[in-house]
Amino acid sequence: MIRFDRVSKVYPKTSRAALSELSVELEKGEFVFLVGESGSGKSTFLRLVLREERPTSGQIQVAGKDLAKLAQWKVPALRRQIGTVFQDFRLLPNKTVAENIAFALQVIGKSRKEINVDVPEVLDLVGLDGKEDRLPHQLSGGEQQRVAIARAFVNKPLILLADEPTGNLDPATSVGIMKLLDRINRTGTTVVMATHDQSIVDQMRKRVVELSGGELVRDQSRGVYGYVR
Amino acid sequence: MHVQYLASEIGTGLRRNLTMTIAVVMTVAISLALFGAALLIRAQAETMKDFWYDRIEISVFLCNDFDTGATCATGAVTNEQKDVILSTLEDNDEVDEVFFESQDAAYDLFRERFEDSIADNITPDQLQESYRVKLVNPEEYEGVVSSVSGLPGVAQVVDQRALLDRFFRLLNGFQVAALAIAAVQVFAAVLLISNTIRVAAFSRRRETGIMRLVGASNWSIQLPFILEAAIAGLIGGILASGVLIAFQAFFIEDILVPAFQFTAWVGWSDVWSIVPILLLAGTGIAAIASFITLRRHLRV
Questions:
Q1: Spatial distance between the Cα atoms of B218 and B121, rounded to a whole number of angstroms
Q2: Which helix (H) or strand (E) holds A56?
Q3: Which of A112, B134, B204, B258 lies 20 to 30 angstroms, CA to CA, from B79?
């Protein structure tokens, strides 16, 4: 589903590589934790998958497409197959829960009919039915993140990228979010989650890919956060 | 892209940035009003050319007994000289027709035009015989004038086009001045539009960021901004058209036309042909300026 082949990324005006010679392959339907300290290259990895950045060298394949050969005008089509969730939720403050989710469908040209079906369905999935008319500031952090996940998943993407989705949440709330991501993963969606949250990684026992200084230092199925070498 | 969604986006965008939008509308309106004025001046020049060039001839006045110029050194024009002048005129391709006006005919015209009391002091032999020349193409008078003006027996060649051309040069000057000011204003309008769009793109970076992320096409991300600018430009064009229509109705039709009836003036057909240009220019300039700005300031 996502394949990096000797991918390096050096940002302009920096000397150190954000990623160097990274080769990793994530299969369809996998749940993968991307761990490593700040500056280890996790965010760069996610940005490369979204083609927000292009690698300095190496090949990236996402959903069967070679990103180097992907024309600029086809990038939106790529991104429609990838849902993205962030630590800071990134909801529109002046839109209700339902409007926030509908917005993601409106701007890619979905019909009102489809929206009227898809939005309640995904609200039900993330456990927010009944709260569709609330504004984001009327929700708890965990609920806001559920809205963000609903927005990322409403278009049934092949891949869900989550960049520290529990970073702003307390442990109990985080567990709920992880259950939700796990449920989404069970629908066949590949989930890639960058995180610092040790207890979550340890509990989930999923594949762990660890980066350090832009290099792959560990790739372990059913791993834990702190690896005893 | 939903029409309703698009409309509400544009509506909030224009309202959120109302002061800047008003500034854009006003500069666009002023620049286009000046541009329209320039076009109207050109139309006026064309109208006057059409009107006058058909009525004007080249007059080749011939020497009489009283002329003392170098070409009249031999006194009144002789028949041989007249033949040479006539054939010179008739051999010229630009000449359409030549009429001969005798001293008596000139005297009759003179009597018609002025009071009898003045005409009583004039005798036909004090007036000049002349050839009146109509041209094929009224613009091409200079060659004809120079071909006969030095000939013996020719006292003077009067071309009324030359007089008119001085007037047209004046009109042309007005037109150039209006265009120059319009160009400066257009430049200011483009900078204002660019800045407005930059502010709008910044204030909506959250929305556009999400749109980008969920895979909205570049076009659908940029369209609300471009339409917003285009609408402001269109309003500017409408205001400029209003100014032009008011100018035609209240200044040209009500004041100039009654006051100067001897000449032709631009009509409503000229105004109606300029209005669509103004509307199109207003919309187009704003849309293009915003499009170029977005390419630089809205990452997609």
A1: 87
A2: none
A3: B134
Q: Are residues B131 and B101 in contact, defined by beta-carbon separation less than 8 angstroms?
A: yes
Beta bridge partners of A59: A5
Query: CB burial class (10 A; 0-12, 13-18, 19+) of residue A12?
Result: exposed
Q: What percent of chain A has a predicted confidence (pLDDT) above 70?
A: 98
The full 3-state SS of A84-129, as one line of letters, equals EEECCCCCCCCCCHHHHHHHHHHCCCCCHHHHHHHHHHHHHHHCCC
Per-residue model confidence (pLDDT) at position A228: 52
Q: Is the pLDDT of residue B48 over 90?
A: no
β-pairing, A207-212 vs A215-220, is antiparallel
What is the DSSP code (8-state) at residue B278? H
CATH architecture label of A1-81+160-223: 3-Layer(aba) Sandwich (3.40)
3-class DSSP state for residue B140? Answer: coil
Give buried/exposed letters for B265-288 (b at 16+ CB in 10 A, else e): bbeeebbeebbeebbebbbebbbb
CA–CA separation, A111 and A58 (whole Å): 39
Helices assigned H by DSSP within chain A: 42-49, 75-79, 97-106, 112-126, 141-153, 171-186, 198-204
Pick the residue from chain A with its C-alpha nearest to B224: A107
- Alpha carbons B96 and B205: distance in angstroms, whole number: 71
The closest CB to that of A79, out of B206, B207, B215, belongs to: B215
The answer to whether B210 contacts A104, with C-beta atoms less than 8 Å apart, is yes
Q: In chain B, what are the domains? A: 3-52+165-297 (no CATH), 57-159 (3.30.70.3040)
pLDDT at A165: 94
Shortest alpha-carbon distance between residue A20 and chain B (Å): 25
d(CA A198, CA A224): 8
B214: nearest CB among A73, A92, A108: A108
What percent of chain A is modeled with pLDDT above 90?
73
**What residue spans define the domains of chain A?**
1-81+160-223, 89-156
Tokens of A124: 């039900």
Mark yes or no for CB contact A109/B220 under 8 Å: yes
Interface confidence: ipTM more than 0.95: no
Q: Do A109 and B210 touch (CB under 8 A)?
A: no
Q: Which of B97 and A115 is assigned the larger pLDDT?
A: A115
Average pLDDT, chain A: 92
Helix (H, G, I), strand (E, B) or coil at B223: helix
